[in-house]
């Protein structure tokens, strides 16, 4: 009798980190499997550790190898950490993509705004609908989140059903879109759920996430009580928050001016898909300066301190149309993502120095998370009754707290895993059965680089200690044809004694060349290596750092 197909799961991103989500499910045996991919997102570069790197993406080399067996890519929702890598990576896969209407429309708008984006077809699935993707039957179950049309995915197979939650929360009073479908989740629990692959972002926070309706009330109160101009910044994708800001502006008899391309794009898609039906038309930045101060509200990008976004330019007083002055207010209707604290703090300080009142979630309920806290995680477990729970979408602390909570809630099996772990979900005992290649790709300008790329490693070193360049012209007889050229970049001009570094390095180059036997002087590679070592040593002696040193030897 033939053995039944195994159902396996592997995260290629999004485990042990927040962002860069990519999960794969396989059905078959170890010789032949059909694969389903869920989400394909990015995380963002950190200038301190990854200078010049804008985006980080999951390594998809395993899926490239399995391309003929990849049945499709299904999107839970349209946040960048879940769909931001598609434009760059889909050409390597060319698989069908499935998403609901809003996600598909936002993706289409993103492609239209990108220069030379490939044509990427997306099949639109109704919210609550079911589709067959190879041997996988995928059901889109509505959940509340901070963007329209977020869905948990019930992945039905002959080997059992998996609930992949995506990003979710329980919000009984969302201001826009459908609440989390408790009824359908309870039904799934009664039908039997093999595994729950669950969001762990807020697993360290007790209680429940407040509702969007509470935030909307707070924003109305703050805007109505403001005296001068008001600017509000939030995540551009949070359409419910955009609607709340529009309602607050209407209640305070203010016009909404939309500032920033990402915000304009989301507003356009939200109107096209009906999520801003009945909401007043917004104005363009050109009219901002012509409106009375108490009749305008600027809705801005830049809540995470992005240097090129609208709010950073306003805070630096270099935005062509939008200015703020003493007595005006800025509402940060957002949470600062870990790693962005410095950039956001700099904007807040610049605004305060201009006399602007800054209102944040530290003092007012102007933001709520789109992720479940501990009581919500317990509710999900009680509804779905999974045989196995695997925490995902979180750093190590979040995953472990979610795992402890699940064990305490009576889940029979709980597995904490890492990116690249291949997990057998069923039939039979679940567990890690292997490993698939995983890693990171860096978007460096328009080029995709491996994380071990020499360019990235060298740039990090140069950011720390500058670079020394030396050019030497030698005759065929091994004599200097001219004085060496020395160029120091990012290195102090003088040492502690006040001696110029250019002179120190020049002397080290001359003494090294003159001290070498003629045979080594006639070997360009040997000469370059000797000079490189000497230059790094002398700079280290006077500065305490060893910069990269590039030596060019020319034979004349």
From TrEMBL:
Signal peptide: none annotated. CDD domains: RNaseJ_MBL-fold. Pfam families: Lactamase_B, RMMBL, RNase_J_b_CASP, RNase_J_C. InterPro entries: Metallo-B-lactamas, RibonucZ/Hydroxyglut_hydro, RMMBL, RNase_J, RNase_J_2, RNase_J_b_CASP, RNase_J_C. It comes from the Bacteria. The keyword Plastid does not apply. Gene3D superfamilies: 3.10.20.580, Metallo-hydrolase/oxidoreductase, Ribonuclease Z/Hydroxyacylglutathione hydrolase-like. Residues 21-219 form the Metallo-beta-lactamase domain. Keywords: Cytoplasm, Exonuclease, Hydrolase, Metal-binding, Nuclease, RNA-binding, Zinc. PANTHER family: RIBONUCLEASE J. This is Ribonuclease J.
């Amino acid at each position: 009798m033939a053995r039944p197909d195994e159902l396996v799961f592997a995260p290629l991103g999004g485990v042990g980190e927040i962002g860069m989500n990519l999960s794969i499910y396989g059905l078959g045996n170890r010789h032949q499997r059909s694969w389903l991919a869920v989400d394909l997102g990015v995380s963002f570069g950190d200038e301190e550790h990854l200078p010049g790197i804008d985006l980080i993406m999951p390594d998809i080399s395993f899926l490239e190898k399995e391309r003929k067996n990849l049945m499709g890519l299904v999107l839970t929702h349209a946040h960048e950490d879940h769909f931001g890598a598609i434009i760059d990576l889909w050409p390597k896969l060319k698989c069908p993509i499935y998403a609901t209407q809003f996600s598909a429309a936002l993706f289409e708008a993103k492609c239209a705004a990108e220069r030379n984006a490939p044509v990427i077809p997306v099949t639109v699935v109704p919210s609550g609908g079911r589709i067959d993707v190879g041997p996988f039957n995928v059901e889109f179950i509505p959940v509340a989140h901070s963007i329209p049309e977020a869905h948990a995915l019930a992945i039905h197979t002959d080997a059992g059903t998996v609930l992949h939650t995506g990003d979710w929360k329980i919000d009984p009073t969302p201001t826009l879109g459908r609440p989390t479908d408790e009824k359908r989740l309870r039904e799934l629990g009664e039908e039997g759920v093999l595994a729950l692959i669950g969001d762990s972002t807020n697993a360290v926070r007790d209680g429940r996430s407040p509702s969007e309706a509470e935030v909307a009330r707070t924003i109305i109160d703050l805007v109505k009580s403001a005296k001068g101009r008001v600017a509000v910044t939030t995540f551009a994708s949070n359409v419910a928050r955009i609607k709340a800001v529009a309602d607050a502006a209407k209640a305070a008899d203010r016009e909404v001016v939309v500032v920033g391309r990402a915000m304009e794009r989301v507003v356009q898609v939200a109107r096209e898909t009906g999520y801003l039906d009945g909401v007043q038309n917004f104005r363009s930045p050109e009219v901002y300066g012509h409106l009375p101060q108490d009749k305008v509200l600027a809705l801005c990008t830049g809540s995470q301190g992005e240097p090129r976004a609208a709010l950073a330019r306003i805070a630096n007083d270099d935005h062509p149309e939008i200015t703020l002055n003493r007595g005006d207010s800025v509402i940060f209707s957002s949470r600062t993502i870990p790693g962005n604290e410095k950039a956001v703090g700099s904007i807040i300080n610049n605004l305060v120095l201009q006399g602007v009142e800054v209102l944040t979630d530290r003092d007012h309920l102007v933001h709520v998370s789109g992720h479940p806290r501990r009581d919500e995680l317990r509710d999900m477990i009680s509804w779905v009754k999974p045989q196995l729970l695997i925490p995902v979408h979180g750093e190590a602390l979040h995953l472990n707290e979610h795992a402890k909570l699940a064990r305490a809630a009576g889940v029979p099996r709980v597995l904490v895993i890492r990116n690249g772990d291949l997990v057998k979900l069923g039939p039979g005992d679940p567990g890690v059965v292997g490993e698939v290649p995983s890693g990171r790709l860096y978007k460096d300008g328009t080029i995709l680089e491996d994380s071990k790329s020499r360019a990235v490693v060298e740039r990090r070193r140069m950011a720390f200690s500058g670079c020394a360049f030396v050019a030497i012209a030698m005759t065929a007889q091994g004599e200097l044809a001219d004085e060496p050229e020395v160029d120091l970049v990012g290195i102090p001009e003088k040492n502690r004694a006040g001696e110029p570094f250019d002179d120190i390095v020049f002397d080290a180059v001359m003494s090294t060349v003159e001290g070498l036997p003629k045979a080594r002087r006639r070997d360009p590679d040997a000469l370059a290596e000797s000079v490189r070592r000497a230059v790094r040593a002398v700079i280290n002696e006077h500065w305490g750092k060893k910069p990269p040193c590039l030596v060019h030897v020319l034979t004349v």
